[in-house]
Amino acid sequence: MTKTETPIRVRYQETDQMGVVYHANYLVWFELGRTDFIEALGFKYHEIENKGVVSPVVDANIQFKKPVRYGEDAYVETWLEDYDGLRITYGYRIFNTSQDLAVSGTTKHVIVKEGSFRPVSIRRSFPEWHEAYTKALER
């Protein structure tokens, strides 16, 4: 199974009054990890967008375990949780400086036409991505 680790430097503006990363920012970090994962497979996210399709999040699931604080470094571990040729589910784990699991979760995406939001089969429309995703799932 293919996994990536994306380093994160916690910035002051990402924290709340308690000095803890504001919960919505973890979803931004998921996106950083997902983009890094796609690049590790040899693709650029904007390449698929240039073909008139986008990949909206249709479901997000997140569990908060421990806080990540300003001044800490963290990293996002990202992998492909599930893929069926149409829907893609990415898995994430965020670790703090002490290597403690801070946050885990998933996001589910569907590739759709930009204007109509009609689903697009990755298997048929982007066979090279389909092959890479299929291989990334292998354990």
UniProtKB/TrEMBL annotation:
Keywords: Hydrolase. PROSITE patterns: 4HBCOA_THIOESTERASE. It comes from Thalassobacillus devorans. Belongs to the 4-hydroxybenzoyl-CoA thioesterase family. NCBIfam families: YbgC/FadM family acyl-CoA thioesterase. This is Acyl-CoA thioesterase YneP. CDD domains: 4HBT. Pfam families: 4HBT_2 (PF13279).
